[in-house]
Amino acid sequence: MKIKPRLGGGKSGDPSLYIELLDRKRSLLFDCGLNYFKHALLRKISDVCVSHTHIDHFIGFDTLLRLNLTEEKTLQIFGPPGILQNVIGKLQGYTWNICQNLRLIILVQEILPDRIIMTELASWKGFAITNVVERPHSSQLLKDEEFSINYLELNHKIPSFAYSFIEDESCNVRKEALAQLGLEPGPWVAKLKSLALDSAAGHKELHIQDQAYTVEFLAQHLLIHKRGVKITYLTDFLLENQRMEDIARFAWQSDWLFCEASFSEQERDKAKTTHHLTAKDAGKIARLAQVKQLVLFHFSRRYQDYSILLEEARQEFPRVE
Ligand SMILES: [Zn+2]
Ligand SMILES: [Zn+2]
What we know:
Number of strands: 18
Bound molecules: zinc ion
CATH architecture of the largest domain: 4-Layer Sandwich
GO molecular function, one term: 3'-tRNA processing endoribonuclease activity
Distance between the termini: 24 Å
Radius of gyration: 22 Å
Number of helices: 11
Number of domains: 3
Largest sheet: 8 strands, mixed
Helix content: 25-40%
InterPro entries: RibonucZ/Hydroxyglut_hydro
CATH topology of the largest domain: Metallo-beta-lactamase, Chain A
Order of helices and strands: EEEHEHHEHEEEEEEEHHEEHEEHEHHEH
């Protein structure tokens, strides 16, 4: 899958991270600040994961609603306790007497500590609740056929959720190995690729050109495993020592770690009282989580010169932008 992540508000604007799944014609959005994305991009969004509903992370919901209103689709909104009331509150700010021909469904997934409540709001009924389903709690919020989204609760005086996009592992066939075994490519290749990702399927047999081979044998000789892309988004929380390990595990070996850095170490007190990170905190998380690239954002507007924050993070972790 070709994946392109980009920040909406730059370094100091309202946070939002747009993750474009280029060959799926579908996009995901982590947080919903005042956004600067093109309208066509906002129409491609299928799922929105909201960290918390402070205004800088949620004000963009209105634009998203406006642009998707005439689409025939389901827009999923994931978020912490209270997200349903926040979404309903926004929708009730408008009059919906001419909505019978609309086809948009908003599906809110409110993540509670013990369960997830899925509430369907139908545009053609003025966004009245048309269905409510509960499902068991899981840190994996979404499982698509090619990727999943996980969350972790952080402390921002209120719950603030971190999100990770994790592309599934995939395998590619080594063409020269195919020739060495004298095998012709065919529909069996796709079958082998899917079986090879199932650890319990090694003993199963595939019949190719009148001969039986085990999945284990074929996988060993023909396939190269490719790890999927991982993108982690961390924002608005206090870095408490006792959570360091959890956070590093959550962001573990991400290809991109998008992490807030509201303040510099000099403003450590301010970071503490507002439950935000310093740039040093962000660098430390990147180092412990062994990520490939750290991207800082959500800089306080007091900083005209971003190099102070970038340099501070670099003292902990080299690959910062
Ligand atoms: Zn906040
Ligand atoms: Zn914020």
